[in-house]
Amino acid sequence: MKDTADGPVLAPDSAGRERISIYQPEDASLIFPQTPEFESHEEERTYRKQHLVAACRAFDLHGFDYGFAGHLTIRDPERPELYWTNPMCVHFSQVKMSNLVLADHQGNVVEGRHALNRAGFVLHGAVHEEYPDVIAMCHAHTVYGTAWCSTGRPLDMISQDAAAFYKSHAVIGASAGQVAVEKESGMSVAKQIGMNRAALHQNHGLLTSSRHSIDDAAFWFIALERACQQQLIIEQSGIKPQLLDDKTAAYSREHVGSDYIGWLHFQTLYDHIAATQPDMFE
Ligand SMILES: [Zn+2]
């Protein structure tokens, strides 16, 4: 995975490793998550699958389940035309290494025993096809996200956290409310996701994508749902919020809203889930 961040050049850490974020300690002896490097496709595949499972379980912890709705995808490192996804009709809390599904862009299950989510395949397949550099996506029908999506409005820059989505989220009105099972609908959504980190699909729900990792896509999905919740609370209060100015929002987006920071945030969740739910590895 490639880390990207703009901003001042930081001195390397004491082990000579490049630092791209101020959060990375200069003292390399301190315990701190390191982005992995892989010796083989197999090793990278295992990592991606484990983090996909953890992302599903993080969605469970956050209450993002709604029947069979919701799907997360990560490309296979060796065969990028294929992607790993959660099985259809399996609760996020019960997704594990052994029930993941490997699918192609035509929606055929290449590996795995379970069916895949047809709507998920159309949406994710279309984005993965349109943008070869997008490697991961998340989608779910969440309470606050879906509620905010009904307004057809983008998020206001009410906080540093919301600024992660500054000029990087799209409001998609086209095909609003229709179950996205038709290829045409998927392509129209895919085009509009474009270079954005996130999409608010009107009358439907939230989507995030990542060119970095499933960790990045999953964390910013959680952050997006939270931003929608906070926005609704403010709207309901009737109090007019003070908004970040453009310069501050752009600064926050670059320094605390990068794809690396999304990955880094998610490591907290990954370690918690790996420690408390060891059946994820089965
Ligand atoms: Zn959906």
Please summarize what this structure is:
This protein is α+β, with helices and mostly antiparallel strands and 282 residues long.
Number of separate structural domains: 1
User: SS-based structural class?
Assistant: alpha+beta
Termini separation: 25 Å
Overall number of strands: 8
Number of helices: 7
Q: What is CATH's topology name?
A: L-fuculose-1-phosphate Aldolase
Instruction: State the low-pLDDT regions, or none.
Output: none
Please give the oligomerization state of what you see.
single chain
Task: Summarize the amount of helix as a percent range.
Answer: 25-40%
Mean pLDDT: 90
Task: Write the element-wise H/E pattern from the N-terminal end onward.
Answer: HEEEEHEHEHEEHHH
Q: Give a short account of the largest sheet.
A: 8 strands, mixed
